[in-house]
Amino acid sequence: MTRKEQKEEKRKRILMTALELFVTRGYYDTKISDIAEAVPMSVGLLFHYFESKEELLLELVKMGAQGTKSAEKPSELPPDVYLNGFLGQMFSYAKEQPWVFNMFVLMGQARRAGMPEEARNAASEVDSIEATAKLIREGQKSGIFHKGDAELMSRCFWASVQGIMEEMALDKNMKAPDPEWIVGILR
Predict the structure, then answer these.
(1) Residue 4: pLDDT over 90
(2) What's 28's domain CATH number?
């Protein structure tokens, strides 16, 4: 492994360690020294990778925001079929890569008041609500989804997904629910 690859590997380890600690202990209750100790490395060396805890948080939030950018729904797929498939893939990927559960939790936390403003703004830019509301409106026109405020329905849909991801982050043995159950709230 080259020095560049070693450096990138260590950087990833710092990020994943910080993600775990921010979710389990909370952002403000996690110290840079806690992250360095868990990696393990000296605090001084950690500062060669990230200048501050805020920079670490921002980098994680940017990773989370990038991860939410999904491909557009193929036009031939009905909205319910697309959402079922999307959730199924997301749950499956998260089981293979457990850090994804923690990222969902962190992104929810980062949007709350009191978090560092730059990270909060970056997390708030992720707008799954409107994209899903558009799918819901499409499904309402074709009679797949029940009538109602599409934005509110989208918020409820994502709130249930967020809650599931948080529960699965806490309980590594929890099975993923059938995506049809979640999509069913829209019918």
Answers:
(1) no
(2) 1.10.10.60
